[in-house]
């Protein structure tokens, strides 16, 4: 039976609620939503949608690294945005983060996100070459 292991990264912003950055179960990492907050200050930079997308991906990458994987092994992503009218801008920034492998993805329009963010991204990521069975 696989164990469930919480993952907290010192290189990602602190969670804004009672949850961990990710949970590992077997060879899969289930990442919580990543806001585009500065990891050191926890502050949302006044940035455009592309910058928010890049920051969210960078924060997810830090969480993945803490679990011994990377977004290169992402299986599925969900992007939540308050700005579906900025879909093309988000897509361009997202695509730049995945020059090779592109995971399955859903984009969802929402009314609001924590801390005034306009983008939040979660992920399910494989952990290659590992097993806790």
UniProtKB/TrEMBL annotation:
UniProt xrefs under Gene3D superfamilies: RutC-like (3.30.1330.40)
Pfam families: Ribonuc_L-PSP
Gene Ontology MF annotations: deaminase activity
Gene Ontology CC entries for this record: cytosol
Family classification: Belongs to the RutC family.
Xref: NCBIfam families: Rid family detoxifying hydrolase
Name of the protein described by the UniProt record: Reactive intermediate/imine deaminase
């Amino acid at each position: 039976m696989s164990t469930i292991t919480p993952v907290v990264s010192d290189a990602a912003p602190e969670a804004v609620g009672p949850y961990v950055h990710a949970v590992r179960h077997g060879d899969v990492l289930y990442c919580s939503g990543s806001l585009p907050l500065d990891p050191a200050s926890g502050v949302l930079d006044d940035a455009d949608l592309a910058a928010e997308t890049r920051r969210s991906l960078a924060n997810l990458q830090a969480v993945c690294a803490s679990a011994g994987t990377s977004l290169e092994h992402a299986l599925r992503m969900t992007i939540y945005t308050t700005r579906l009218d900025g879909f093309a801008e988000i897509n361009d920034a997202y695509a730049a983060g995945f020059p090779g492998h592109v995971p399955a993805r859903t984009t969802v329009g929402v009314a609001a996100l924590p801390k005034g963010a306009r983008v939040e991204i979660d992920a399910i990521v494989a952990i290659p070459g590992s097993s806790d069975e």
